[in-house]
Design goal:
The chain is mainly α. It has one domain: Rhopdopsin 7-helix transmembrane proteins (Up-down Bundle). The chain has helices spanning 25-55, 62-91, 98-131, 136-139, 142-159, 162-168, 185-189, 197-230, 237-267, 275-283, 287-298, 301-314; strands at residues 2-3, 9-10, 15-18, 95-97, 177-178. Strands 4-3-5 form a three-stranded mixed sheet. A two-stranded antiparallel sheet has the order 1-2. It is globular, with a radius of gyration of 22 Å. Keywords: G-protein coupled receptor, Membrane, Olfaction, Receptor, Sensory transduction, Transducer, Transmembrane, Transmembrane helix.
Length: 315
């Protein structure tokens, strides 16, 4: 039992219930099929990419190490969110413990920020490769990747800690039904009987500082790449560079746009069905994870050849 400043007495919750698209059980089951297919595609594609890069000595280069980091992040994000959502859809397992909820919140915030940061490093890698090809081997080294990995880890592990910590310290007054499929910060915090203004501001400021700064640097990298590519005189070089970088940039824009749409639906929530931001929240953890290895990996000639060699060895 907990006494509050306003004189009310309430019991703290030990678990939460995820109220995930409860209005229509039929819709839950029909959505679970494409969601599970996307989940298995994401896990399979990222798994194949990681194994290929690990086993193929010719792929032990900085660019492919960065791809490995991206695949690892995608796998963790998928495993953190999708199995629980499918368990809710198929088995009505809505309950999630207090500590598991805030652990999920932390992993989602941290790994999404790490993914954004990895996109930024990969954009810089492409910038050096196209704009300074002669200096590429001396700039993008194994040591560069190691330092980039430490930066990605340190920046996001530390900067995303306050969000779940502050949310977990709120008083929840016995209210435990989260109107979401996942333990998103504001979906959980609004159950509290405390003032959540600081939580809201921290989420907003943290998201725009981390993801916003990454997006600006990514956009700058691809602007410089585009300028350099348009100066190329070699036949086919422009088309090849635009094909590769264009698909990368579109994927990054998709990653950022779905976040922006999610934010906007929260801002205008009175005009938008409450299921829309919930749906976007879930899809944001599986669609980029399914597309990343295909766009970044399979469309890369060296990885394609590496997969083919591994398949031949398997036979």
């Amino acid at each position: 039992m907990t006494a509050h400043q306003n004189g009310t007495i309430s019991s703290e919750v030990s678990d939460f219930l995820l109220n995930c698209f409860v209005r229509s059980h039929t819709w839950q089951l029909s959505f679970s099929l494409p969601l599970s297919l996307l989940f298995f595609l994401a896990m399979g594609a990222n798994g194949v990419l990681l194994i290929t890069i690990w086993l193929e000595a010719s792929l032990h280069e900085p660019m492919y190490y960065l791809l490995s980091i991206l695949s690892l992040l995608d796998i963790v994000l998928c495993l953190t969110v999708i199995p629980k959502v499918l368990a809710i859809f198929w088995f009505e397992l809505k309950s999630i413990s207090f500590y598991a909820c805030f652990l999920q919140m932390y992993i989602m915030n941290c790994f999404l920020a790490m993914e954004s940061c990895t996109f930024m490093v990969m954009a810089y890698d492409r910038y050096v490769a196209i704009c300074h090809p002669l200096r590429y081997p001396s700039i993008i080294t194994d040591q560069f990747v190691a330092k980039a990995a430490i930066f990605i880890l340190a920046r996001n592990v530390i900067s995303t800690v306050p969000i779940p910590v502050l949310s977990s310290r709120l008083h929840y007054c016995g209210r435990k039904v989260i109107e979401n499929c996942i333990c998103a910060n504001m979906s959980v915090s609004r159950l509290s009987c405390d003032d959540v203004t600081i939580n809201r501001l921290l989420q907003f400021a943290g998201g725009w500082t981390l993801l916003g700064s990454d997006l600006i640097l990514i956009f700058l990298s691809y602007t410089l790449i585009l300028r350099a590519v348009l100066r190329l005189k070699a036949e086919g070089a422009v088309a090849k560079a635009l094909s590769t970088c264009g698909s990368h940039f579109i994927l990054i824009l998709f990653f950022s746009t779905i976040l922006l749409v999610f934010v906007l639906t929260h801002v205008v929530k009175k005009k938008v069905s409450s299921d829309v931001p919930v749906l976007l929240n879930v899809l944001h953890h599986v669609i980029p994870a399914a597309l990343n290895p295909i766009v970044y990996g399979v469309r890369t000639q060296e990885i394609k050849q590496g997969i083919q060699r591994l398949l031949k060895k398997g036979w």
